[in-house]
Protein: Cys-tRNA(Pro)/Cys-tRNA(Cys) deacylase
Organism: Castellaniella daejeonensis
Amino acid sequence: MSKTKHTSETPATHWLRQQKIPFGEHPYDYVDHGGAREAARQLGVPLHQVAKTLIMEDEQARPLIVLMHGDCEVSTKNLARQTGAKKIAPCAPETAQRHSGYQVGGTSPFATRKRMPVWVESGLLDYDTVYLNGGRRGYLISVASSVLTGALGARPVTVALGE
């Protein structure tokens, strides 16, 4: 059923098409607070292969994006150490939305309102394909993991907790 749903264009899919980057579309029924776990369950893909897009900020309130396994948390201490920041913390939802231009629960790392450095948990790059938000709630896209470090310019870090 979900494969036949019409998916409207988002800034993320528009950007990917402009860059001629192939991607798969995976709509699912959005569940409040279901997150990556619910998306992976509905789509039948491994949760560890689904990337959460997290908007965080450093001690000077400079925003950054972290792509993390759906079943892991980010060690903000290790992230700060590996990125050269003094301190990193998650943004408040309203702040995250202002930086990204996306509604929380539908945040994509592609075509954000504000250009931000992107960090990717290195384990995600072990997969040929990763699933991440396509720019709205209830909509994942799949891309080659090489797109994250290539077109997106994400830099690998090792900051996962809970593997």
